[in-house]
């Protein structure tokens, strides 16, 4: 599988592409990555399953194809229903993946042509699953809504392959619990991941998608159940160098909140909190004396009611005409010296909470949310409980809770319980993780908390009150006691109570309850607060309002609110972004190289030179490097150069030695003889990172190996004594017959003559003359002799001289039969007359070499007994040497299955062409 | 789980060796120019996140080797650039003349709709050191209808302005695509809660640089 980036115009999002095969048929599975790097199967969700059949097309985007080396490769995948563009990371991983897909397509075509169409039934089942899981959204495949991790998608399982010999981090195959599906892995090539043992294979169709089917297979030790969230391997980090913005948003926020104090200024704002149990009465009274009794208008109002509506309808259907009525009443009575805007209203049966803010402040209020918690009948109904509103004002978070807790004097523990219930069940959603009440900067808790006076009789309480001894009564207040022993409202503060108990009065009066029950007066209605920067200014009851059996309570606070200094905010924000960018840049792959320039001096034909480069991973992340091709070139370096290894993975801090090996052989000698410089620049590309240019240079000592026959026949002395300019000139235009030197040209190159002469004199009776390579060392010695025109070959091995001859002929810049005659010779190979005709057309010096060597072959065949040579063997050998296909025509344009036969046929033709001349006497 | 979205602009820097491309990039991305300095031999890049006109944009800037011997290789990197910064050194006449050559490479190898700006770096130079007048640079830029800046990586002068200008005209050129994607992001990704603040800032941020 390979990680890629789905490109939707300008938006890129990562996808995981996997080639899955099930027996014969293959399909491309595209997974969304819910998380990067992908570590376990839960991190990915199947998005599409595309069977690789007739309509499946996978192409490198032509327009920008082979774009810049190192850049991601744009790959378009098209089927009848889909058309998507991916960017795959540059490198051999992708090309391997690509070739596997091509193979799969080829395989499909072959299967169908043989009348065995593939069914792809298994893929269909996956597709059904995807459809089900995507039904909620639009049907546009790859639409943005699909980014949501589809919850119904199949559970996936990760199979970890046993660590292979090579240290690749990606050896991770996804194994689905359709146990017989295999993922072809991009870098393990033909090995592939180990399959499941046959006993574990599920028959298709049975218990598909069920986890049970999987547990049976988990007995195999290398299977790890990812359902339980275990991490089974490290997946390579994103191929793309740029991490998406979305991932960073959370981090940015976190950093900003850490540095909040740098860009916020505390400014006081006035908050009015009011609470009133209205005993189901309608709003028939002016609320002004309660809500607007101060000189200064507050900035924010939070007004709570209880028992707003005692009707059955309100209880059963949470529907009440009173809501509108009281809202209007409150709105009318808000402070006349300011304009207010309703921020939020929330009601549960009789509990209602309304939040207002001054008009001009409303735009600084964000993230408003409201919730309700019922703790009434069965612990759930809304006759008791709480309603809450949370909001962010400037940069400070506020929450207001209006609650009506359990009634009756002795039920204080139940009230504690209700409080705790509200605290744990009141969760404000829609802000990432749900927010608890306690997670706010300023908390206000108001309502009919229903705590009473314990131990004192009604008359005792009234007695104290008459004597203005409120403090003494407060000692018996249940809330006071419960808070002191930390049973409820931990962390909250309540101001000193200087007002009369708010309960219970005869409605319409200021006189205590005169009913038979003769309830003891109590401070049922309370306002508490919690938060660092809250200062209470007033806490009071309002005797003037009489319609209820409760009196309303209100409190005024000054809250130091964190307001954002826009300038400073921007500065900090930019700073945070800059730091994250820097961090990200630091986390890009980094290596340091010991050297960027390599000089190889006096490079000689077939003499290897080496130098090494050390690559140290100096960055913070694992690095994979690779030498990449330059534009329009099909190898990363010139033919005379090799880098070992040309691709490698390095852990941070580790070092790898790369060997540069320069070796000029017959493939590259002629162009170097013709003046091409020993120069190359390699691009060392870091996966997901930068590129380095490494310069290789040197000087080549020209050799008669790789020279052209035309030049050689004009050189009377050793090649190294020829002025280099003259040599280049002769080589760059070998057909120019104009004499550059005063000498007559030789008939054949003297080197050929020397070698053949030596063999002729010493080797005609040696067995297997051309079959055994001489010792390598000898070859070089002989090689030097040729250069220096020495007539004696020091080392005794006749075989190495023979090898030198073959090498020399093979290295000729243009073969003995010039390229233009190549095809003609093949075409007439079975007709000696025609062959002779062709031969008569080739340049004289070439013809001479041909004649000379075939004559030598005939000579050798006279001693067949001793030399153990055979006409056919010799013909084949010389055929390959004399007839080389023209450059660019080396690869045959035939279907792969017929390639072998075609090659053999050509070899036969070459041999038979030469055969004509070694079995027949030939003269012009 | 945060949605993954990304709007990336790819910019490229070209110009003779020694004009200060790497220094400019380091100044822009890291606000820091390293004291030990070496000629770039290869292709390097840095990432920078910016809010331009209220849009959060990631900019990937590729720094190329200016040395002549690498030209054949660096040319291949022009392909995917959406914007190119042409840099010369105002203390070095040759580097200004060579802008012609770089323009030629761009027209041969960069996409047709690539956006360009011309930058004369090292504006901290003394008058006596200056070899290319501001007028000359301006004239050239005008001729090719591209914005022109005199910058100093040393003194951090006009560096941000130049890059932001290029990012801006690239965004303008690709406005349709970007807007479409922004809309997708708005529709399908919940705005982060402080987004409105950033947006508000984007609005009163128009003092930065004005387009042509
Ligand atoms: N006075 C002055 N010198 C600068 C300024 N910017 C860079 N330099 C100097 O110019 C020299 C070259 O800077 P680089 O950033 O390496 O130049 P470059 O364009 O990246 O060069 P190559 O990587 O070779 O293409 C260094 O010695 C810097 O210190 C500048 O704004 N003012
Ligand atoms: Mg540089």
TrEMBL record, chain B:
SUPFAM superfamilies the record matches: P-loop containing nucleoside triphosphate hydrolases (SSF52540)
InterPro entries linked to this entry: P-loop_NTPase, Small_GTP-bd, Small_GTPase, Small_GTPase_Rab
Tagged with keyword Thylakoid: no
Coiled coil ranges: none
One protein family per Pfam: Ras
The family this protein is said to belong to: Belongs to the small GTPase superfamily. Rab family.
Protein name: Ras-related protein Rab-15-like
Gene that this sequence comes from: LOC102810004
């Amino acid at each position: 599988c390979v990680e890629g980036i789905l490109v939707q115009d300008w938006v890129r999002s990562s996808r995981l592409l996997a080639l899955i095969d099930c027996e014969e048929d293959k399909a491309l599975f595209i997974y969304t990555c819910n998380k990067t790097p992908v570590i376990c199967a839960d991190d990915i969700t199947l998005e599409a399953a595309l069977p690789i059949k007739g309509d499946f097309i996978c192409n490198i985007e032509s327009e920008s194809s082979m774009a810049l080396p190192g850049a991601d490769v744009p790959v378009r995948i098209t089927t009848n229903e889909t058309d998507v563009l991916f960017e795959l990371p540059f490198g051999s991983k992708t090309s391997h993946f690509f070739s596997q897909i091509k193979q799969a397509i080829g395989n499909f075509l072959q299967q169908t042509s043989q009348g065995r169409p593939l069914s792809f039934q298994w893929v269909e089942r996956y597709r059904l699953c995807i459809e089900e899981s995507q039904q909620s959204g639009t049907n546009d495949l790859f639409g943005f809504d699909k980014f949501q991790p589809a919850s119904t998608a199949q559970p996936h399982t990760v199979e970890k392959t046993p660590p292979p010999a090579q240290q690749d981090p990606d050896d991770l195959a996804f194994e689905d619990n359709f146990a017989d599906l295999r993922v072809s892995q991009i870098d393990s090539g033909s090995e592939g991941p180990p399959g499941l043992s046959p006993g574990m294979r599920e028959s298709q169709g049975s218990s598909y998608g069920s986890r049970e089917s999987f547990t049976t297979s988990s007995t195999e030790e290398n299977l790890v159940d990812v359902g339980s969230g275990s991490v089974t391997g490290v997946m390579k980090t994103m191929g793309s160098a740029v991490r998406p913005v979305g991932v960073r948003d959370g981090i940015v926020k976190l950093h900003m909140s850490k540095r909040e104090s740098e860009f916020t200024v505390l400014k006081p704002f006035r908050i009015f909190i009011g609470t009133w149990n209205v005993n189901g009465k309608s709003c028939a009274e002016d609320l002004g004396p309660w809500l607007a009794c101060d000189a200064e208008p507050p900035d924010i109002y939070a007004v709570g009611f209880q028992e707003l509506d005692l009707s059955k309808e309100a209880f059963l259907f949470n529907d009440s005409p009173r809501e509108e009525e009281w809202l209007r009443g409150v709105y009318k009575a808000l402070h006349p010296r300011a304009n207010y805007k309703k921020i939020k209203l929330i009601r549960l049966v009789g509990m209602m909470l309304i939040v207002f803010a001054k008009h001009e402040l409303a735009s600084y209020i964000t993230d408003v949310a409201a919730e309700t918690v019922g703790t009434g009948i069965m612990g759930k109904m809304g006759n008791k409980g709480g309603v809450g509103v949370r909001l962010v004002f400037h940069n400070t978070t506020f929450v207001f809770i209006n609650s009506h807790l359990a009634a009756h004097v002795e039920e204080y523990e139940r009230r504690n319980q209700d409080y705790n219930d509200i605290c744990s069940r009141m969760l404000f959603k829609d802000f990432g993780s749900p927010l608890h009440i306690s997670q706010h900067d300023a908390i206000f808790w108001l309502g009919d908390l229903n705590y009473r006076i314990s131990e004192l009789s009604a008359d005792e309480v009234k007695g104290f009150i008459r004597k203005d001894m409120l403090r003494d009564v407060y000692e018996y207040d249940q809330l006071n006691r419960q808070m002191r022993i930390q049973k409820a409202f931990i962390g909250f503060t309540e101001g000193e109570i200087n007002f009369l108990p708010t309960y219970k009065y005869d409605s319409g009066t200021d006189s205590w309850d005169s009913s038979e029950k003769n309830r003891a007066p109590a401070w049922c209605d309370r306002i508490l607060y919690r938060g660092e920067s809250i200062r209470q200014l007033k806490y009071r009851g309002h005797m003037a309002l009489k319609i209820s059996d409760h009196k309303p309570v209100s409190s005024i606070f000054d809250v130091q609110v964190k307001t954002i200094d826009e300038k400073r905010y921007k500065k900090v924000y930019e700073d945070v972004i800059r730091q994250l960018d820097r961090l990200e840049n630091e986390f890009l792959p980094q290596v340091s190289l010991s050297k960027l320039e390599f000089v190889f001096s006096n490079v000689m034909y077939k003499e290897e030179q080496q130098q090494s480069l050390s690559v140290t991973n100096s960055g913070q992340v694992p690095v994979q490097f690779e030498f990449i091709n330059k534009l329009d070139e099909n190898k990363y370096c010139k033919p005379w150069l090799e880098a070992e290894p040309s691709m490698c993975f390095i852990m941070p801090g580790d070092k790898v030695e790369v060997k540069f090996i320069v070796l000029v052989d017959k493939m590259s000698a002629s162009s170097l003889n013709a003046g091409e410089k020993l120069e190359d620049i390699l691009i060392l590309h870091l996966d997901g990172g930068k590129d380095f240019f490494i310069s290789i240079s040197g000087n080549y000592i020209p050799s008669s190996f790789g020279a052209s026959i035309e030049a050689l026949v004009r050189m009377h002395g050793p090649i190294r004594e020829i002025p280099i300019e003259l040599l280049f000139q002769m080589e760059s235009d070998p057909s120019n017959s104009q004499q550059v030197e005063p000498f007559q040209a030789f008939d054949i190159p003297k080197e050929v003559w020397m070698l053949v002469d030596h063999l002729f004199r010493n080797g005609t009776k040696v067995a297997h003359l051309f079959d055994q390579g001489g010792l390598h060392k000898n070859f070089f010695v002989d090689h030097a002799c040729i250069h220096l025109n020495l007539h004696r070959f020091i080392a005794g091995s006749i075989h190495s001289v023979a090898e030198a001859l073959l090498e020399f002929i093979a290295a000729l810049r243009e073969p003995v039969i010039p390229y233009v005659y190549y095809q003609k010779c093949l075409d007439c190979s079975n007709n000696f007359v025609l062959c002779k005709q062709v031969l008569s057309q080739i340049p004289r010096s070439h013809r001479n070499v041909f004649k000379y060597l075939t004559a030598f072959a005939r000579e050798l065949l006279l001693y067949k007994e001793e030399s153990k040579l055979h006409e056919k063997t010799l013909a084949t050998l010389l055929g390959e040497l004399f007839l080389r296909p023209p450059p660019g025509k080396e690869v045959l344009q035939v279907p792969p299955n017929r390639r072998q036969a075609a090659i053999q046929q050509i070899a036969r033709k070459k041999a038979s062409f030469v055969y004509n001349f070694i079995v027949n006497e030939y003269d012009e | 789980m945060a949605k993954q979205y990304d709007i990336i602009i790819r910019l490229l820097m070209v110009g003779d060796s020694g004009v200060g491309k790497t220094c400019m990039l380091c100044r822009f991305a890291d606000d820091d120019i390293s004291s030990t300095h070496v000629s770039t031999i290869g292709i390097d890049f840095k990432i920078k996140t910016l809010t331009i006109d209220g849009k959060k944009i990631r900019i990937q800037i590729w720094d190329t080797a200016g040395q002549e011997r690498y030209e054949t290789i660096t040319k291949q990197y022009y392909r995917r650039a959406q914007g190119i910064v042409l840099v010369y050194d105002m203390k070095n006449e040759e580097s200004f003349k060579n802008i012609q050559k770089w323009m030629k490479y761009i027209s041969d190898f960069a996409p047709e709709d690539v956006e360009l700006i011309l930058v004369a770096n090292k504006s901290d130079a003394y008058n006596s050191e200056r070899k290319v007048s501001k007028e000359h640079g301006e004239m050239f830029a005008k001729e090719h209808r591209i914005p022109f800046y005199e910058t100093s990586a040393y003194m951090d002068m006009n560096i941000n302005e130049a890059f932001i200008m290029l990012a801006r005209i690239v965004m303008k050129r690709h406005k349709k695509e970007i807007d479409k994607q922004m809309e997708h992001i708005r529709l399908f990704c919940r705005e982060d809660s402080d987004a409105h603040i950033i947006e508000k800032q984007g609005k009163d941020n128009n003092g930065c640089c004005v387009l042509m």
